[in-house]
# Entry
Amino acid sequence: MTDPLLFHPHRYDPAHLDETSRRLLRATIDWFESRGKRALVDSYNHHEWYADFLDFAAKEGLFATFLTPAADAGGDPDKRWDTARNAALSEILGFYGLGYWYTWQVTVLGLGPVWQSGNAAARARAAALLDEGHVMAFGLSERPHGADIYSTDLLLTPDADGGFRATGGKYYIGNGNVAGLVSVFGRRTDVEGPDGYVFFAADSRHPAYRLVRNVVNAQMYVSEFRLEDYPVRAEDVLHTGPAAFDAALNTVNVGKFNLCTASIGICEHALYEAVTHAHQRILYGRRVTDFPHVRRELTDAYARLVAMKLFSDRAVDYFRSAGPDDRRYLLFNPMTKMKVTTEGEKVIDLLWDVIAAKGFEADTYFDKAAKDIRGLPKLEGTVHVNLALILKFMPNYLFRPAAHPPVPTRRDPADDEFLFAQGPARGLGAIRFHDWRTAYDAHAHVPNVARFREQADGLVALLAAHAPDEAQQRDLDFLLTVGQLFALVVYGQLVLEQAELTNLDADLLDEIFDLLVRDFSGYATDLHGKAATTEAQAAWALAHLRRPVTDADRTARVWQRVVDLSGTYEMHP
# Structure
């Protein structure tokens, strides 16, 4: 039996999308399935560059269709930047392997500064390159500084022709070996401070662009490159001054969302493989899935994965409905990056505890999933960086709700043009949110939603009565635990909103919140043990430990959904 909540390659038909999008997504699935599992695992194990996939994408016009905004589409009605269908493709690519997703992801990032630019020539050039089947790259990070863009050492010296000569290196740049266009961040030698920042378009095929090496031991190519007196023409300049800085941050805002859907796709494929293996294996005269601890771990993995999908699907709606007066997506975005991807790690860990040594075998997908799932929480800013960002929203979110019109489900074929007109990357603390309690109130009849709501209300009480003092506010170790507690409240809100919109089975929703109650208690225990925690805060932590409401019949019904996955999907050999 097929689970309608999970991606299944043989039965996938996104009826909510237009015909061209459906055809291209189906063609992508069919390409992987006809290529087969042996080719998938062998190319991964041998670190073979995925030129065959890029050839397929070029032939189908896949990236050109999905990543060209309508304004640059030359009248093609199928081209647009549509977060809903981009999320669908991202999940599919993650399902088959991180490398295929990664070349897509860094193309998204490379295009960000271009589509935010008013440089018509550069935009036309990018659109033409996409039509030709090229991929792009995002030249931001440097080896000494990582993504600390304040400290860039790539220098642009003005020349006599109104342009610059660029010299310096970039590090950890995906697609840097083949990108038709590389959006490169640097600073002018003749201008101090933020006014000296420059984003410009480079070409990896230019003689002054020197590819140094691949810096990772993987199928994907993550380059180190150097520019040696590279000629930057006036028509290559995308942004200057503070606008270049904003373009960098706003590009990451757009790109980091894809991390959640990649994590979901990886977990879905691994789940099919793990459940099938466990259910068909006999140990000590019993099916592995007859052991109670195995049932709990697989049920938890499944519930966590469904919650990941619910949150991410709902976050799409906030992205697509965003505008200058509604920037709530700027909270839900780091949540997808930080929370969903770390949940993905938990899913894989639970599955791996069940299948044990099987998870190391070279001819499995799981072996790849177990390695690759670790990367997603560490891309586009670490978990800690994104948690610190999430904390900026906490006061307004918890204490100062504002009226907002309801955000509908957004699967319409519209161009998400605001994502490239986000404006200055500041003012996060002023963003207002609708009342988070509304979603919880609507599901108060679900036992574990009600129990988690007690914990969420407790967090509000803690911050009102025993808010972090000045020293604690400088102690990031302490604050990150508070951030994890806050993130659970936000996570639960969007899970509940999507559950309402999709009429999610009440048993499954209760099982998801069983997990959230346990997670909250875990972080409260962590807070209790922090050296910086006061006696009052420690007492609060103990007082808000909760056991979830258990229901053996409910858990058995959810378990049946899990065990029914056994044998339902195996990639073509």
